[in-house]
Amino acid sequence: MATVQLTVNGESHRPDIDVRRSLLDLLRETLDLTGTKKGCNQGACGACTILLNGQRVLSCLTLAAMHDGAEIVTIEGLARNEELHPLQAAFIKHDGFQCGYCTPGQIMSGVGCIAEGHVHSAEEIRFWMSGNICRCGAYPAIVAAIAEAAGLPTP
């Protein structure tokens, strides 16, 4: 067992955890933040994408014990005082989801993609978002939403 200090969506937490526990399981099972989805649990689908110290990571492959002192943002932490994050609003406007299961990971990865500066074209967005799988095939709408949130003309 280990105790970690984490700031999640602006709130401080000090859970005692099994050192083998992933950030995904800590978020979902201990902190009850179920917006981050468990898809493949092998790092292949991107459904569990979060921001860890400002960088997008696959939380299913990330051990919580290795990130004492970290700042984490999940899909629940993007909106501010009832105002959606611009990418969340763009996803709604462009219907960037169908079943919605991949949407939290897509949005978190899209926020990371924008922050990293990988949004100069639709092709670049598609390349840098390629680690996120949408089984419904909403990719054109997802790219359009990210482009709009980044201030680009929508494809």
Task: Give a quick set of tags describing it.
2 domains; 5 helices; Ubiquitin-like (UB roll); globular; two-stranded antiparallel ribbon; about 160 residues; alpha+beta; 5-stranded mixed sheet
Tell me what the structure shows.
With 155 residues, the chain is α+β, with helices and mostly antiparallel strands. It has 2 domains: 2-77, Beta-grasp domain (Ubiquitin-like (UB roll), Roll); 86-149, DNA polymerase, domain 1. The chain has 5 helices and 7 strands; from the N terminus they run E-E-E-E-H-E-E-E-H-H-H-H. The chain has a 5-stranded mixed sheet, with helices on one face. The chain has a two-stranded antiparallel sheet with strand order 1-4. It is globular. The mean pLDDT is 95.
Count every helix, treating DSSP H or I runs of 4 or more residues as helices.
5
Average pLDDT number: 95
SSE order: EEEEHEEEHHHH
- For the largest sheet, list the strands in their spatial order: 3-2-7-5-6
Percentage of β-strand residues: 5-15%
Q: CATH topology of the largest domain, which one?
A: Ubiquitin-like (UB roll)
What's the architecture of the largest domain, going by CATH? Roll
CATH class of the largest domain: Alpha Beta
- The general outline is globular
Structural class of the helices, strands and pairings? Answer: alpha+beta
User: Tally of extended strands?
Assistant: 7
- Give the fraction of residues assigned to helices: 25-40%
Question: Main β-sheet, in a few words?
Answer: 5 strands, mixed
> Which stretches of 5+ consecutive residues score pLDDT under 50?
none
- The radius of gyration over CA amounts to 15 Å
CATH superfamily of the largest domain: Beta-grasp domain
Number of discrete domains: 2
Distance between the termini: 49 Å
